[in-house]
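Late entry, zinc ion complex.
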Amino acid sequence: MISVSSKITSGSIDVVDASDPADIRLALRKDPDGVFLGWYHFRVSGAAGQACRFSLTNASDVLSWRLANREDYDNAWQNTGAMASYDGDYWFRVPGTFDGTSFIFEHQPEHDLCFYAAWPPYGAEREHRYIAEAQTSPLVKLETIGESVEGRPIDMLTIGTPDTGKAKCWIIARQHASETQGGYFLEGIIDRLLDETDPTARALLASAVIYVVPNVNPDGSANGLTRANATGANLNREWDSPSLEKSPEVFHVSSKMEEIGLDFCIDCHADKELNCNFIWPSENVPSWKPERRDIFTRFEEAWAAASPDYELGHPYPGGCPAEANLGMGWNWIGNRFPHSLSVLLEQPFKDTTEFPTPETGWSPDRAYNFGRSFPEALRAVVGRLGTNAGQ
Ligand SMILES: [Zn+2]
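Prediction complete; structure with ligand written out below:
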């Protein structure tokens, strides 16, 4: 018999009817807020050698919260596909089509068990194992800075030795749980920083301390949510007034930033409609200083030089809102720490236009390698951050 199940780590799908492999109908689950949906991750067994047709019957509901002014871009379901894997490690892309209501993909599994997902998951097991290993480095200190709504620990890694004059550089990821690209990207960064034979890492850590919060929304990750936390809050709209009841995750991270200080931050997200890696500075916050644009330009030029997977000069998709929403992490941070450079990162779900890899699209390995290129970009501006910035 064919079994379709999302009772797996970060699993999410509702089975409408899986009795006929040629017409497996599934529904995306909504987050606790009742609005956000789009993430799916499930396993199918007993279908080896059978031509399966999967329909996500409520895919069009995702478009109800599409960001403004994106009409010139493909929506989340166009020119993409489901990701599939037999071993949970190597993921390949199965082409899909969107008929205006359902997202449909067809696949004939070669093995008895096959996993499908919107993008390769980054599960708690991998995350905790990676963090546990990283903290054994003499360069790393681990601190649990608070707990999520459901009591999961929020960990922060301090990489390097704090000292007067060093820039305080923050990296936060996965406010939106389904944007798992951030997990692989962080592994790329941290692997380089902890390599004591890597000259860029050594030079960077001589003038900076890196504070990393690998997962701002561990409940969302564990529960297979798209964007919200366990209370249904979109954490990236909570930064101007986080509360212990509704958004303790942001409350704890922002409190720690206040306590330690901040000269640089990159907030790692992913966007279902983009075909590139995209970064932008918090240029429309009230405390923005024009000289920060020069630092940002130097930062992105260095990143483009280090990685052709950063497409230099891509405009803000749909236009950057003239009035910054201070509930968003990168804006709140940029406004609260006026001397700092606060950057938003969006990785793609689909593929990049430049140097695409059609078999996988944007993939964990590519996200990892993109992370490995980040230290060059940060090193290019670190001398102009913090106490060296002459503020
Ligand atoms: Zn996001």
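The CA atoms of residues 176 and 227 lie 4 Å apart. Will revisit in the morning.
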